Amino acid sequence: MLDEKEVEKSYEDACITLDLVENFSGLVIDKLKGWANKEIFDGGLEVEIPLNDAVNAGAVSFPDNPKKAKIIITMGMLFEIYRDSMVFPIYAEKLKRDTDTFSDHLWRRFDSVPFKFAGGVPDLEDNELTAIGQLLVSAWKSANTKMAGVNEEREQMLSRSLACRFQMFEFMIAWVFFHELSHIVQCHYKLKPGQNGNGELYELNSDSLGSYSSQAREILADIEGLDLTLRYLSREGVYNYKSFYFMLCAQTCMFNRFYSGKYDENYFSVKTTHPHPVARYEFVCHYFSSRLNNEVPLVFNDEYRMQKVIEIVYITTKSSIVSNLFWANRHESYEGGELTSFMKVQKKSETFVGKLYQKTIERNINSQLPTILENHLYSDSDMFNLESMGILRKN
Ligand SMILES: [Zn+2]
Q: Of 5, 99, 256, 273, which has the fewest CB atoms closer than 10 Å, so is most exposed?
């Protein structure tokens, strides 16, 4: 009889093959590319998936022809996205079983939230999934009727986690794709000093020196990436809190991935092209909350509006705690009983230096925004509304 860890490992190894990740991600990427080509590029956008295990993504603009562009996402990135999505619901279940993270008394102040759920992930019915989610779940179920060495309770749990896995996988790919697309539609190459020839930007590039202005552009790509992902959820008919939860979990995992081993607990490092991942998290979370808040029609009274605020706080708080604990337990030597390293940095964002850093980035966003809006390739972009939404303060 295999022990639990061995069962999990054999399940994980058996589940992840190159073909599988390639086929599953291909469905999502083709759909996203199809939309972008129809709406923006008239067929000129290409997506390249290099077959190497480096975890990276990039965007290429062609200054001579704005209707031509390329997004690069490595197979290593897709592989790791799949691996995280696959084990996330299992770890979330473990948190429920082994810790008091979800104890009732800790979450009582959210009792009025209609979609409050007890464990680490909400249950998803088939009709709450995207079309790709439904397809993948039913294909998976029919191909894997029973697993050897797994008891019935565990099999049920694994089966329930399938829906979560595929939604998280789809939303994580969508956000990575749309982040890269945002670099292109915002024509960031025009703001990059000394840019010659094709504007090529990579996410993980340890050689290049950064500045506050390059960090501000990353924040803008994060924000527009999130806007485009939310629109994708809407087109797919799943614009609801369960989807938001998985999308936020996917993003928090990605920011933990960018953080782990590459940044320290110093909040405002300027040496890199990309901001500290905690800063990125704070900005996208602020955008998400403001956007949802702005969607509440003005005719509703203060009580209704406050209820919406509680719901937004619930979804952002819970996704952050669960994803941070997932990451630390799975990828770091985290013993529990204290904040994870990522969470410790999150606390620093409330300090004087944290606020000062955010103001510096906002100033660099404001100074680049006119050029971005003047050249923007997508006329329906939410970037045109940032100021009126109150996302940016006047500096
Ligand atoms: Zn970027």
A: 5
